[in-house]
Design goal:
It is globular, with a radius of gyration of 19 Å. It folds into two domains: 194 residues, NAD(P)-binding Rossmann-like Domain (Rossmann fold), CATH 3.40.50.720; 104 residues, UDP-galactose 4-epimerase, domain 1, CATH 3.90.25.10. The longest helix is centred in the N-terminal third of the chain and has 21 residues. The protein is 44% helix and 18% strand. The structure holds serine. The site of serine has 11 residues, from loops.
Length: 317
């Protein structure tokens, strides 16, 4: 087992809960942290601490106390919550990141992971096969904060020598922990409602194509990026990172193959313009070339796996 000590912030979130468990299979010391109390899965399998990323001294104490040498900084506010509370999103996403970047630099942390997003792109970006390097004019506070975050990460790499690595995640789909406050969350909720109620009212229009990814691919890709040799990493802002792209109607059709009487209705809300400003599909050829990225799940394989697992969870509940 690798003897590095890893700190994960925002470990109670959709990505964090699964990433912590995956990291604990490889690393002996993985400290999960969050603003809120940890779930049993996080606190029983290893160290869990309460940590507010806005409180720099607490962060620094933790890094020193545990001799942390890798940080996965996941704590953030997502797009839909960010539009409702821009001040909070800016403070957590920006000040939280600056604190982490400084604490990592001051304590000679070896590697930092920063989750970026497709929301760094905006309405003026080419929407199909969005390239790694292109026009970026995000128009959500979430996107603006993550784009600025990418620039800070690149700056800390260039000027302070911090080994920062980052992925522009698409919508993440998982059954272990639900998403919260994002525009792509429909693609998680739809599965739970399909199994429980056989119907779902979608907050995006039926033909809204967005980039998505199944959690096992996201976890594998994240760890693969973080374990790649430093000289292979040519992007220090955020790598384009693609799984599969689809619209709500495509996902509904796929679910119907297993649940034939599933019915979907559409009631687009304030999240529709957010989705309309984002890419439909992503060109991740730089990630493929630099560290051999390749997703394993398409919409069909992901849908089958989601439904099997949610049904299994419901039957034991
Ligand atoms: N899933 C995120 C959101 O919808 C995008 O990165 O906000």
């Amino acid at each position: 087992m690798n003897s590095d000590t890893i700190l994960v912030t925002g470990a109670g979130g959709q990505l964090g809960t699964e990433l912590v468990l995956a990291l604990r299979k490889i690393y002996r010391h993985v400290i999960a942290s969050d603003l809120k109390d940890g779930s049993p899965a996080l606190s029983e399998g290893g160290e869990f601490i309460r940590l507010d990323v806005l409180y720099k001294n607490g962060l620094a104490d933790c890094v020193k106390r545990f001799n942390v040498n890798q940080v996965y900084h996941l704590a953030a506010i997502l797009s839909a919550t960010g539009e409702k509370n821009p001040e909070l999103a800016w403070r957590i996403n920006m000040k939280g990141l600056r604190n982490v970047l400084d604490v990592c630099t001051e304590n000679k942390v070896k590697k930092l992971f920063f989750p970026s997003t497709i929301a760094v792109f905006g309405p003026t970006t080419p929407r199909v096969n969005t390239p790694q390097y292109t026009v970026m004019e995000p128009n959500t506070i979430y996107g603006i904060s993550k784009q600025a975050g990418e620039r800070w990460c690149d700056w800390y790499f260039q000027k302070r020598g911090l080994d920062v690595r980052s992925l522009r995640y698409p919508g993440l789909i998982s059954y272990k922990t639900k998403a919260g406050g994002g525009t792509t969350d429909y693609a998680v909720d739809i599965f739970f409602e399909a199994v429980e109620k056989k119907k779902y009212e979608c907050f995006l229009k039926e033909d809204t194509v967005l980039p998505m990814m199944y959690m096992p691919d996201a976890i594998r890709g994240t760890i693969q990026l973080m374990e790649a040799p430093a000289d292979k990493i040519t992007v220090r802002s955020g790598y384009n990172f693609a799984g599969c792209s689809f619209a709500p109607k495509d996902l509904a059709a796929e679910i119907k193959k297993t649940i034939p009487d599933f019915a979907i209705t559409y009631a687009p809300d304030f999240r529709q313009p957010i989705a309309d400003s984002w890419p439909q599909s992503i060109d991740d050829s730089v990630a493929q070339k630099d560290w051999n990225w390749k997703p394993e799940f398409d919409i069909a394989k992901m849908t089958k796996d989601m439904l099997v697992n949610i049904e299994a969870m419901q039957s034991v509940a």
